[in-house]
């Protein structure tokens, strides 16, 4: 089975009709320099909707009819490419398919045991690297700083907040619902959590962070970003990591009308793409792995199952239905 | 004569009714540590409306009834403060008044001849320092970069663009009307100018800067900022210097809905306040003075006359009626 892109969801919500299921695709020839893989785990990432729209121009362009792109982990069945052999675990651009032949440039061999595979999509994979580089390179937290994270119970947000805690900061998470908020404070060690569905975020934040926000990590955009920009501290760093608000409404959400506070507070607002720091991946992964081992970085998977459920699982992400890293399990390793 | 703040123009246009004229104010006692000055020149700055609103919290708070604050240049009449004597030229927070007693902390003695006084409000004063630090510290232009300046025919914009030219960049100015545009290209040496009143700014910019904008200097905000954010290049630096758009409409203008391009382009958007770089003022002034002397930095005053015309002169600024530095001449030096 595989799933193809059926339509571009530009300017509207993603729906099940944006994907076409192909139950019995033809077996691809291995060819020269090919790696035939069986998909084990698929990562669900907010950026996937953007890839379908070709938004931003930073990822490989997609066409309607393409196999739906997705990061994931797979196991090699056979290979004509040097460096890959049957049984190897690989991670990379796998796509929504049970099986396929990939060029070696899209995948990377990883050393992992079957139990630790999900960690390679999460805290040690794209999720962890995004949180690590965004926080260290753009957020630049200093011990004692007040750090606020939106979408804090999501995959990247929960890791970003914990990295700020490791960095000696006071961390406040913003999330939807009491369960997510309790998870942040009781299990991840956030100093406080604000349920944006209950009461006024700005007023609560004023009480929790009277000195303002030194590092603002935003995964959401829209109205919440605007409210938080009104509360930044002098020389604040605003890390724009995601804009989940733009996925659940038609068109683009309004821009932050409080952006001018960047001037009053001599602040900077920055974006980043993890792959810009590829030369530092090894260091980052080693540090993240150390924190996980020491129990300072807690990772949680929200695990769904079955490739037939891929569209429904991805759509959960934009509704904020997940806690931690949303992963789709496709098959067990051999 | 002096002018007092009569009302806070928050969320609306400035009007003549926001000021109260006092024709015969009582003569203030000199007191201890006082400097009695006679105002010569007053600077007209967009920030003045913000000061009346107490917006941003970065300037000394104002009250209705206060003398209208303004930077300016004055001449000392008498002084009981050390370091000031009759005849000295001083610059600083003078306010809209013919004469007054100021504490020494609000003013600074300057070495200037009567002819060069306006230069000390402009290219060698707050205007020049704002352009210098914003461009060097936040814009960080590199030779060959494409730099776009909005409000380019204004005081700060015209200097910022010329500094980028000195830095070896290709500079495109955006201004209102053919006269301003001609001034930018024919006299200041900008590589191109776009009249935002004629045709689509985004389309014209696409032709003039097909590789995108490396440094975007924004004095305007609103719709133009949004259009330009759609055209930034990879790793662009966006310098938020001003937001003149917010002065001519009720409420706040919409925020830039294209802010998310900061992520796609790994860009940064930053604000700054010149006084953060006070330790570097001497270096900056020396470099600016050198460029003026060499004819590489051209400075133009748009000179109005008479303290009675202060409100009307300031309001011209928000309508974009000035070319270069808008200065109100109050009196000649003795």
From TrEMBL, chains A, B:
InterPro entries: ADH-like_C (IPR013149), ADH_N_2 (IPR041694), ER (IPR020843), GroES-like_sf (IPR011032), MDR_fam (IPR045010), NAD(P)-bd_dom_sf (IPR036291). The lineage of its organism: Bacteria, Pseudomonadati, Pseudomonadota, Alphaproteobacteria, Sphingomonadales. Residues 11-328 form the Enoyl reductase (ER) domain. It comes from the Bacteria. This is NADP-dependent oxidoreductase. Keywords: Oxidoreductase. SUPFAM superfamilies: GroES-like, NAD(P)-binding Rossmann-fold domains.
């Amino acid at each position: 089975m595989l799933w193809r892109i059926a339509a571009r969801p530009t300017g509207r919500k993603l729906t099940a009709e944006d994907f076409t299921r192909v139950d019995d695709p033809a077996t691809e020839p291995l060819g020269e320099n090919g790696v035939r893989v069986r998909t084990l785990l698929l990562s669900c990432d907010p950026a996937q909707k953007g890839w379908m729209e070709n938004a931003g121009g930073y990822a490989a362009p997609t066409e309607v009819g393409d196999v739906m792109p997705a990061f994931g982990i797979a196991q090699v069945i056979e290979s004509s490419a040097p460096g890959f052999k049957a049984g190897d675990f690989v991670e990379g651009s796998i796509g929504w398919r049970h099986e396929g032949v990939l060029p070696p440039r899209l995948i990377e061999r990883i050393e992992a045991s079957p139990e630790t595979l999900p960690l390679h999509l999460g805290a040690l994979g794209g999720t962890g690297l995004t949180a690590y580089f965004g926080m260290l390179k753009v957020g630049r937290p200093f011990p004692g700083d007040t750090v606020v994270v939106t979408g804090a119970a999501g995959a990247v947000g929960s890791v970003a907040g914990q990295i700020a805690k490791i960095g000696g900061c006071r961390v406040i998470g913003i999330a939807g619902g009491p369960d997510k908020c309790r998870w942040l404070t009781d299990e991840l060690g956030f100093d406080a959590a604000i349920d944006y569905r209950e009461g006024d975020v700005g007023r609560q934040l004023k009480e929790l962070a009277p000195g303002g926000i030194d590092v603002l990590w935003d995964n959401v955009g829209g109205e919440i970003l605007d409210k938080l920009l009104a509360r930044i501290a002098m020389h604040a760093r605003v890390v724009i990591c995601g804009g989940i608000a733009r996925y659940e409404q038609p068109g683009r959400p309004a821009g932050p009308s409080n952006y001018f506070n960047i001037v009053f507070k001599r602040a900077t607002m920055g974006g980043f793409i993890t792959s810009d720091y590829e030369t530092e991946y090894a260091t980052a992964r080693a540090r993240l792995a150390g924190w996980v081992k020491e129990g300072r970085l807690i990772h949680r998977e929200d695990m769904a199952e079955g490739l037939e459920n891929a569209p429904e699982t991805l759509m959960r992400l934009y509704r904020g239905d997940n806690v931690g890293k949303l992963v789709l399990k496709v098959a067990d390793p051999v």
